Amino acid sequence: MNKQTVKDIDVRGQRVLVRCDFNVPLDGETITDDTRIVAALPTIRFLIDNGARVILASHFGRPKGEVNAKYSLDPVAKRLSELLGKPVEKAADSIGPAVQERVSLLADGDVLLLENVRFHKGEEKNDPELAKAFASLADVFVNDAFGTAHRAHASTAGIADYLPAVAGFLMEKEIDIMGRALEDPNRPFTAIIGGAKVSDKITVLENLLAKVDQLIIGGGMANTFLKAMGYNLGNSLVEEDKLPLAKELLDRAEKEGVMIFLPEDLVAASAFKADAETKVVDAETEGVPEGWMALDIGPKSMKTFGLVIARSNTVIWNGPMGVFEMEAFAKGTNSVAESVAKCQGTTIVGGGDSVAAVEKAGLAEKMTHVSTGGGASLEFLEGKALPGVVALKDK
Question: What residues does (2R)-3-phosphoglycerate bind to (predicted)?
Fold first, then answer.
């Protein structure tokens, strides 16, 4: 990564504002998954150990620029205190005289968490006045929120106009691992792309076709490709307007020598319901019957996908193979998760649904890297420049 990190600056006695991604799932007051908080700990601990005065900022939920107790970061402050083994105080706001005063009382190694930055309307609009107000609290800005790096917001990109800006360890790790996989992968390089719609991932597919050796396509988006090949899909989700594009991508893959693997068999259901009647159909010879819909990949596809993954040296996975929220249609996604976990090469899981599937299956530890950024990792795979990264100082 050609950006400066916290290791490139002297932080002792400095007020360091760290943008984290503490947008964690809550059940009442209880955090049900603290992965994102844990992911920020190496940067926070490094700053504490090196005598910085640490100010943490994050968004939480979608309060739409209004103060809303439901989206307060109180539970995060509590969990952070437990994880760090030291008190983490929480400010009542993220800017203003009271916050300024609270910051002025920080000693070296102290940690203060600001209130949800999205309580201010200007945050998502990247308002320069708000960015300036954030910047006035600190001497240095550290962006460690890869999950929001694709958004040009006041606390992710705007603030870097007014302070020296460097990357935290999580940001560095995300960019390094994903960047290396895309730019200089150990081959064979396989991408597994799933999810509902081709339209959501057109640019990802186009960008990856120039880089990978093998492309596995599953989930609802595979239906559009299968239909483009002339197969019957019954009542399955198909993007009719994307059929020409699917054909074009298949032709391009052939020209570029990229092997595309689509489902050979499908789990068809009589209705979009967890308890619907199901049967496995061969995609080419019989297709999905009229009135039925494909909701998962079948056993033959699981086996083929597993073999492709096993002989890969780099694997990037984004998107489920079926409607994995329903137990009856989660087998395909789980089988891919198991195959990726067993793969001996570099394995990267990015995107909310695939990450959820891997964590639910208890396989996250077996992956080389599980990305904390859903939309950000998707845009990274598309080859887009991420505003939160662009804003950081070059080495």
Answer: 36, 118, 151
Rounded to two decimals, what is the model's pTM? 0.86
Annotated catalytic residue 352: yes
What pLDDT is attached to residue 9?
95
pLDDT of residue 374: 72
pLDDT tens for 242-271 read 999 999 999 999 999 999 999 999 999 999
Q: Please state the domain extents for the chain.
A: 6-173, 185-381
Alpha-carbon distances, residue 77 vs 7, 24, 92, 217 (angstroms): 25, 12, 12, 41
Question: Can 6-173 and 185-381 be said to share one CATH topology?
Answer: yes
Respond yes or no: is residue 36 known to be catalytic: yes
CATH numeric code, 185-381: 3.40.50.1260
- Reported as a single tens digit per residue, the pLDDT across 355-372 is 888 888 889 999 999 987
Identify the CATH number of the domain defined by range 6-173. 3.40.50.1260
Catalytic residue among 158, 168, 219, 352: 352
Residue 212 Rama label (left phi>0; alpha psi -120 to 50; beta)? beta
**Is 273 noted as a catalytic residue in this protein?**
no
Is 116 within any annotated ligand binding site?
no
Question: What CA dihedral angle connects 163, 168, 173 and 176, to 10 degrees?
Answer: 20
